[in-house]
Inverse folding.
């Protein structure tokens, strides 16, 4: 930055004769100085103006919630991940963990049912409490943790009545999805009388209309199934007299859910997860995803897009088994839960 300013017309001589405050006025009046930088130079002096430039450059390169790497290697040049400086740096709470076996994309018969799966780093599954019903005791957030299984952050709770250090067990603690704004030391409660604050779990009948919610149940007592990804939130648009509420989901779909089902207040944190860039192919392999071969690069016996001379597809985009891939509806027209969908996500986009 200093080199560019020194090379600008009229600034080189001014910098060589640097004697504040006269030098500040000479730099501000030169042709290579911008209007905003000149005003800050006249009012704050050289120290304040250069501090502002440094802050501006820092904000330009990294957005809040993201971490960019220095381009030391080609793989790190474009790598951007979510910031984890405020998260717990240790391991998970072991009483609430289980081993996670890999399937390699195969079912019990050994047949591949999910292609391009295999390898990746070993992971430990955290037992997250998605139910958090009326009988769940109140607790205090001990820490916010990273979970390799999901895009949202998780919070470790210590229930009331288990204050001793020797009482660390699966009964004294629980994991929950961490909404935005939840911090260590916050109190979290459940039930119809719980306060309307992020992290509180209440029945839909006790949640105001328009309030952002997540971890929404579809059946009372089964546990939350909707709006569980990082940065997502649903909202109640209407409460009916028939015992159902209309929920607007992140996809735009509007769905009927029983008022007896529970949901958690607030939008989930880690909203910058959608802006992550792996930077290299190896980062995808760390996540257990293998390379994909394009259908056009295959032979005609292997894929509908394969074969031919040159780049010839010959038909619409489809899977190796002939199912269209762009805009084709795969939901069963006679699905049992069609009655609960008020507005389809496809119609909500228009």
């Amino acid at each position: 930055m200093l080199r560019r300013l020194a090379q600008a017309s009229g600034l080189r001589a001014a910098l060589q004769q640097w004697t504040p405050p006269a030098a500040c006025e000479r730099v501000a009046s030169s042709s290579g100085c911008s209007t905003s930088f000149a005003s800050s130079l006249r009012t704050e002096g050289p120290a304040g103006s250069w501090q502002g430039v440094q802050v501006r450059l820092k904000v330009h390169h990294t957005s809040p919630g993201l971490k960019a790497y220095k381009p030391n290697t080609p793989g790190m040049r474009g790598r951007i991940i979510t910031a984890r400086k405020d998260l717990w740096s240790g391991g998970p709470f072991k009483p609430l963990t289980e081993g996670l076996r890999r399937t390699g994309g195969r079912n019990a018969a050994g047949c591949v049912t999910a292609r391009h799966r295999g390898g990746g780093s070993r992971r430990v599954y955290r037992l997250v409490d998605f139910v958090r019903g009326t009988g769940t005791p109140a607790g205090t957030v001990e820490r916010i943790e990273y979970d390799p299984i999901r895009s949202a952050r998780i919070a470790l709770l210590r229930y009331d009545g288990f204050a001793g250090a020797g009482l660390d067990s699966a009964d004294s603690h629980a994991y929950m999805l961490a909404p935005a704004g939840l911090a260590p030391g916050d109190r979290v409660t459940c039930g119809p009388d719980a306060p309307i604050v992020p992290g509180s779990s209440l029945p839909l009948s006790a949640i105001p209309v328009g309030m952002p919610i997540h971890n929404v149940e579809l059946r009372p007592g089964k546990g939350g199934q909707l709006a569980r990804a990082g940065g997502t939130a649903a909202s109640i648009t209407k409460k009916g007299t028939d015992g159902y509420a209309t929920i607007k989901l992140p996809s735009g779909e509007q769905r009927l859910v029983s008022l007896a089902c529970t949901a958690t207040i607030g939008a989930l944190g880690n909203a910058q997860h959608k802006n992550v860039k792996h930077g290299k192919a190896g980062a995808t392999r760390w996540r257990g995803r293998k390379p994909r071969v394009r259908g056009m690069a295959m032979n005609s016996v292997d894929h509908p897009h394969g074969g031919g001379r040159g780049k010839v597809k010959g038909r619409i985009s489809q899977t190796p088994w002939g199912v269209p891939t762009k805009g084709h509806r795969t939901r069963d027209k006679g699905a049992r839960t069609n009655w609960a969908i008020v507005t389809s996500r496809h119609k909500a986009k228009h």
Summary: The radius of gyration is 28 Å. The chain has a mean pLDDT of 87. The chain has seven helices and 17 strands. The first strand starts at residue 66 and ends at 68.
